[in-house]
């Protein structure tokens, strides 16, 4: 199934040109045995009979994010996102924060993939203007649109309310006050929900700080080290056998340990 | 243009748990079987590879291997005075897609329902009188008994290799098991999983309170096992990437590990993947199915004629296919007439969070079914008289995972960001546990499934509409259970506890459970059921429906043990009765 996904993950933020017709999924190539059966039945489905239709290593690995530059953000937007996430997860005596952990790169790369366009979601209208809180996501805005419009609205708000300054130039205290107001929805931006922007950045920051470093955030597994999550070791029989003992081994990610020189 | 393919004996819609079992057994009965599955082929070595599988963002958060709402979703509302809106991002439940279905990324908690659950209506009225029955309920007895299903529960558990400890073998109570369970012929095929430190505390505390804790039955295997189909499994490593993930170790029972390796070797089996069945076709008089129509990956439409059609598309999608195909009378909530879509039910969740000092719970050493449970407050195992509700819950202390994007609890009132949050998240991770109650949901006139008047899928067909909310009976029950959970948490030695009441109204955003039941229920009366006791359509006797859509109401357990037992039960009737003399197995 995976070829389109792979290309979608690699794609820049331009919407995918070819949209799989009804599945939002991509296709796996055929085996010779399968193809033979297809001609005998005349159907173009993937036909599986008598053998397991797999080839080694067909599962697609994710493409590791290479830090450097922005694929979605402008330099100004990236600077604001950096400044916001630095307040959300600050560097302090407990260790690095979101900014040093590459979370802005994580968000930038997520926004360029299928997540950024809500490619896998049902996005047909009509879009209700007043949904029930129990009905969940109902906005027609994709994450890319939320960031682009939300960050512009934040910039305009700061300019108007902080003497022409940008969010980046505010004092730590002012930044926190503003973010707290956005979180509650008390701050009114012109033409955009401040709360929607806050939620998008907050959600993606937590994702980036705690996701596998392969996605560009959680550099050196800082998020995992903060709480003591050992990552992808995949075998904790020793832990179950030794109840209530502190776990002391360092974490491992999909690309290995930092000591292995990956990053 | 629809093109017609050569006839098959059996067309199966969906190749998850129920579809794969049906396919294998019917091939072995000598039939030509085609299974049509809308997602891709998936198996362990390629798709659940250890180098890619333990990826929380990709699988648990972005839902890589789940059904995508763009392909199919539902609309939802809490009651019929509201306008339903599409579920655009899965939350409350997470339907599967692809070979293996939800059976490839489930947790694996594999229960039998209790004998009383199958005759709930009669039992309640006998013991407490009509007065206890909740307002607007449509609770029904099941048309088969626990004893009738017992051999088929056994069969399913031995195919899956379930790890557990029997509590009742041939009527004899067994130490260490669940004393409330129905009598079983023999013990589980593999011993129970080892438990973690938190479960040790839970079992000790509960036993001290006079309750009866036991290790819960698990499809994450405690030891190597080869099942009756010759499929081999390896011991679970407590990897903590279980629910929402395929297992890289061949340790989680799934169609991939337990059925497909045998199935693909059957010469008269064929699977067509990336093909979505759009409807069951009927004869001119509507009394027989002639086959199914599906759309392949290229958007081409095919008709697959078949003598027997089995809907194994997951409970919710079985209901939609019945509605779209015009099989059975759709339920009308206004008049209370009709049956397809009737008695939709779900599951309650409530409990208590417990914060300790100076412990290392190591929540990452976890598995989908790791946990200790007790049934003292489930079904009719306790006196409902003083409480004024029907139903119950299994109470569990478990770690299914400690994956940090989604699992990083903090005490209520903690800031959600900043240095104070950082400190709290670090301090809490190792010393928090949860005592949870998974409760039954009764069926009501007000909760149902029908076709949405506004929203359509990519093929232009109406989405299904879910109208559901927790009713006062469930709220009362779940909140009473939360107090029981808190009492246990305190007895475990928690420094502080936090009670988690049932989240109402039902909200589609937070994950609750993929335990959607009802809509094509089995029963003795065609006026209040879609299927007879063999899960055969009353209206179109060469259509059988498998899955939790057959439950008249839901019990205080995960559904799949019962889904599996019912599948083998229906299969037995198909093999022993239907194939000898095709037609209605129960006369109306
Ligand atoms: C995250 C998660 C955790 C769970 N944990 C547990 C647990 O711990 N214990 C428990 O008892 N249960 C659990 N469940 C539920 C369990 O997975 C299901 O009960 C079980 O898989 C149901 O089997 P089924 O055959 O009815 O459906 P599935 O296994 O889902 O298979 C249905 C198949 O039909 C296919 N299909 C659907 N529509 C069509 C169509 N129109 N055309 C062609 N194909 C179609 C689907 O793609 C799918 O492959 C969990 C489910 C999820 C998602
Ligand atoms: S917890 Fe066990 S069964 Fe679950 S995925 Fe990990 S190894 Fe497999």
Can you give a write-up of this model?
- The complex is a heterodimer of chains A (263) and B (588).
- By secondary structure, chain A is an all-alpha fold.
- Chain A is built from 9 helices and 1 strand.
- Chain A has a domain at 75-122 and 138-227.
- Chain A has helices spanning 3-10, 32-41, 75-88, 103-112, 143-161, 172-184, 194-210, 222-227, 237-241; one strand at 46-48.
- The longest helix of chain A has 19 residues, at 143-161.
- Mean pLDDT of chain A is 83; it is low at 1-42.
- In chain B, α1 runs parallel beside α12 and α5 (146-160) packs across α12.
- Chain B has helices at 17-28, 44-47, 56-61, 120-128, 146-160, 197-208, 255-258, 260-263, 315-325, 418-428, 472-491, 560-578, and strands at residues 3-4, 8-13, 33-36, 74-77, 85-86, 168-169, 172-173, 214-215, 225-226, 232-233, 269-273, 276-282, 289-295, 301-311, 342-345, 348-355, 371-374, 393-398, 432-439, 448-456, 462-467, 496-500, 517-519, 543-545.
- The mean pLDDT of chain B is 97.
- Chain B is globular and about 70 Å long.
- At the A-B interface, β1, α6, α7, α8 and α9 of A face α2, α3, β5, β11 and α10 of B.
- β1 (46-48) of chain A pairs antiparallel with β11 (269-273) of chain B, so a sheet runs across the interface.
- Residues 13-19, 36-39, 94, 96-98, 101-103, 105-110, 243-244, 276-277, 312-315, 317, 368, 514, 547-548, 558-561, 563 of chain B line the site of flavin-adenine dinucleotide.
- Chain B: Residues 236-344 form the Glucose-methanol-choline oxidoreductase N-terminal domain.
């Amino acid at each position: 199934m995976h070829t389109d996904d792979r290309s979608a993950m690699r794609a820049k933020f331009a919407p995918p040109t070819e949209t799989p017709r009804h599945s939002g999924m991509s296709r796996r190539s055929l085996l010779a045995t399968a193809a033979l059966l297809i001609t005998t039945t005349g159907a173009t489905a993937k036909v599986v009979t008598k053998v397991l239709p797999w080839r080694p290593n067909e599962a697609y690995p994710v493409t590791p994010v290479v830090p450097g530059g922005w694929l979605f953000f402008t330099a100004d937007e990236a600077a604001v996102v950096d400044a916001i996430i630095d307040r959300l997860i600050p560097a302090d005596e407990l260790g690095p924060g979101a900014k040093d952990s590459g979370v802005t790169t994580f968000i930038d790369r997520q926004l360029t993939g299928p997540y950024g366009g809500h490619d896998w979601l049902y996005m047909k209208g009509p879009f209700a203007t007043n949904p029930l809180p129990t009905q969940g996501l109902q906005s027609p805005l994709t994450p890319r649109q939320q960031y682009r419009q939300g960050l512009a609205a934040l910039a305009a708000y700061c300019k108007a309310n902080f003497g022409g300054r940008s969010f980046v130039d505010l004092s730590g205290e002012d930044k926190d006050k503003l973010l707290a107001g956005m979180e509650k929805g008390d701050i009114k931006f012109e033409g955009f929900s401040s709360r929607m922007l806050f939620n998008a950045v907050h959600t993606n920051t937590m994702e980036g700080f705690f996701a596998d470093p392969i996605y560009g955030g959680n550099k050196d597994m800082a998020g995992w080290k903060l709480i003591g999550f050992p990552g992808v070791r995949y075998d904790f029989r020793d832990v179950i056998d030794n109840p209530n003992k502190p776990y002391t081994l360092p974490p491992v990610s999909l690309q290995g340990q930092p000591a292995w020189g990956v990053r | 243009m629809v093109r017609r393919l050569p006839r098959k004996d059996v067309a199966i819609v969906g190749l998850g748990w129920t579809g794969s079992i049906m396919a294998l057994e019917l091939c072995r009965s000598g039939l030509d079987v085609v299974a049509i599955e809308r997602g891709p082929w998936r198996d362990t070595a390629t798709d659940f590879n250890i180098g890619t599988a333990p990826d929380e963002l990709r699988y648990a958060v972005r839902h890589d291997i789940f059904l995508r709402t763009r392909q199919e979703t539902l609309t939802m509302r809490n009651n019929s005075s509201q306008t339903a809106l599409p579920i655009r991002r899965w939350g409350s439940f997470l339907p599967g897609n692809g070979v293996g279905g939800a059976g490839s990324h489930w947790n694996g908690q594999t229960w039998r329902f209790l004998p009383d659950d199958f005759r709930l209506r009669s039992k309640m009225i006998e013991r407490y009188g009509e007065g206890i029955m909740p307002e607007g309920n449509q609770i029904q007895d099941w048309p088969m008994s626990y004893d009738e299903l017992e051999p088929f529960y056994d069969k399913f558990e031995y195919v899956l290799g379930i790890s557990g400890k029997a509590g009742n073998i041939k009527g004899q109570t067994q130490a260490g098991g669940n004393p409330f369970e129905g009598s079983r012929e023999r013990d589980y095929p593999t011993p129970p999983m080892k438990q973690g430190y938190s479960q040790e505390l839970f079992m000790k505390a509960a036993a001290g309170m006079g309750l009866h804790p036991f290790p819960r039955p698990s499809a994450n295997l405690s030891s190597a096992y080869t099942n009756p189909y010759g499929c081999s499994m390896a011991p679970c490593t407590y990897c903590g990437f279980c629910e929402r993930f395929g297992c890289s170790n061949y340790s989680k029972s799934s169609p991939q590990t337990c059925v497909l390796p045998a199935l693909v070797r059957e010469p008269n089996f064929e699977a067509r993947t990336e093909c979505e069945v759009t409807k069951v076709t009927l004869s001119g008089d509507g009394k027989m199915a002639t086959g199914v129509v599906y759309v392949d990956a290229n958007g081409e439409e095919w008709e697959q004629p078949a003598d027997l059609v089995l809907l194994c598309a997951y409970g919710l999608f079985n209901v939609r296919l019945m509605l779209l195909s015009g099989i059975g009378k759709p339920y009308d909530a206004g008049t209370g007439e009709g049956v397809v879509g009737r008695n939709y039910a779900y599951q309650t969740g409530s409990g208590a969070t417990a914060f300790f000092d100076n412990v290392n719970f190591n929540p990452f050493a976890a598995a989908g079914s790791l946990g200790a449970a007790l049934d003292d407050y489930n079904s009719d195992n306790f006196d409902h008289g003083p409480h004024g509700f029907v139903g119950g819950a299994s109470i569990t202390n478990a770690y299914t995972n400690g994956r940090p994007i989604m699992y990083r609890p903090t005490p209520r009132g903690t800031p959600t960001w900043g240095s104070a949050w950082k400190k709290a998240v670090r301090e809490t991770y190792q010393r928090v546990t949860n005592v949870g109650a998974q409760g039954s949901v009764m069926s009501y006139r007000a909760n149902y499934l029908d076709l949405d008047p506004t929203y359509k899928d990519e093929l232009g067909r109406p989405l299904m509409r879910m109208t559901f909310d927790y009713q006062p009976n469930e709220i009362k029950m779940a909140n009473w259970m939360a107090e029981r959970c808190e009492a246990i948490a305190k007895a475990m030695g928690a420094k502080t506890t936090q009670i988690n009441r049932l989240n109402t109204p039902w909200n589609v955003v937070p994950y609750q459970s993929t335990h959607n039941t009802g809509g094509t229920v089995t029963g003795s009366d065609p006026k209040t059921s879609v299927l007879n006791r063999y899960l055969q359509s009353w209206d179109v006797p060469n259509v059988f429906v498998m899955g939790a859509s057959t439950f008249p109401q839901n019990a205080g357990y995960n559904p799949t043990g019962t889904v599996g037992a019912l599948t083998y039960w229906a299969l037995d009737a198909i093999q022993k009765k239907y194939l000898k003399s095709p037609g209605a197995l129960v006369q109306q």
